[in-house]
């Protein structure tokens, strides 16, 4: 049983990996499966929210009662997110967004006639940072996947992006796995969620977000 903690609230969620094209058949991506973000979407819908799920490359089925928008690149994810931000109360950024894109992707398959080749990369927009810095920003929740110094790096990200809540997890434990173990970082400190299936973690996270969100709107 999940109490309807987010009844009537509009929740925007990104999930999965983005894909940056190199040529007609190749690209740059990462090993995010989308499982964590889809679990968060399902938990938010169970809690009564109207959920819009902006999904990168993943074959996962759409969770019940969620509106899904499929995107490929970080730029497409940014555009889908920016379109929905003005009508969202909460934004949860679970996606593993590629930090760079290829400057001149080739329309055709690149032939392997050279021994070495160089790709010119340019930085992608930081979707979460952009949303969090808007005057009409919804309540923003970030994730941080770190391979070392988890708390130090995650708290630095939370402060840099001005987030009321950030979910810290270790890449080695989280990426692609069915279970996860996370630490919630907010202004009150740290709160550990012990290893459990991603849906259990997502339900606990949604309860935490609902309580912080309620407090933030009462001020
Ligand atoms: O998909 P799974 O296999 O289930 O794995 C889940 C997960 C490990 C991908 C997930 O739990 C997670 O940690 N997601 C964040 C991944 C990440 O690498 O974040 P980051 O440290 O690069 O970025 C920090 C935050 O900024 C994230 O909320 C991210 O969505 C956001 N971001 C980052 C870069 C960018 N260009 N735009 C963004 O919005």
TrEMBL record:
Its EC number is 4.1.1.36, 6.3.2.5. Its cofactor is Mg(2+); FMN. Residues 6-211 form the DNA/pantothenate metabolism flavoprotein C-terminal domain. Residues 11-219 are annotated as: Phosphopantothenate--cysteine ligase. It comes from the Bacteria. GO terms for cellular component: phosphopantothenoylcysteine decarboxylase complex. One of its GO terms (biological process) is coenzyme A biosynthetic process. Pathway: Cofactor biosynthesis; coenzyme A biosynthesis; CoA from (R)-pantothenate: step 3/5; Cofactor biosynthesis; coenzyme A biosynthesis; CoA from (R)-pantothenate: step 2/5. Binds 1 FMN per subunit. CTP binds at residues 99, 109, 125-128, 143, 157, 161. Keywords: Decarboxylase, Flavoprotein, FMN, Ligase, Lyase, Magnesium, Metal-binding, Multifunctional enzyme. The keyword Amino-acid biosynthesis does not apply. One of its GO terms (molecular function) is FMN binding. It catalyses: N-[(R)-4-phosphopantothenoyl]-L-cysteine + H(+) = (R)-4'-phosphopantetheine + CO2; (R)-4'-phosphopantothenate + L-cysteine + CTP = N-[(R)-4-phosphopantothenoyl]-L-cysteine + CMP + diphosphate + H(+). In the N-terminal section; belongs to the HFCD (homo-oligomeric flavin containing Cys decarboxylase) superfamily. In the C-terminal section; belongs to the PPC synthetase family. Catalyzes two sequential steps in the biosynthesis of coenzyme A. In the first step cysteine is conjugated to 4'-phosphopantothenate to form 4-phosphopantothenoylcysteine. In the second step the latter compound is decarboxylated to form 4'-phosphopantotheine. This is Coenzyme A biosynthesis bifunctional protein CoaBC. The gene is coaBC.
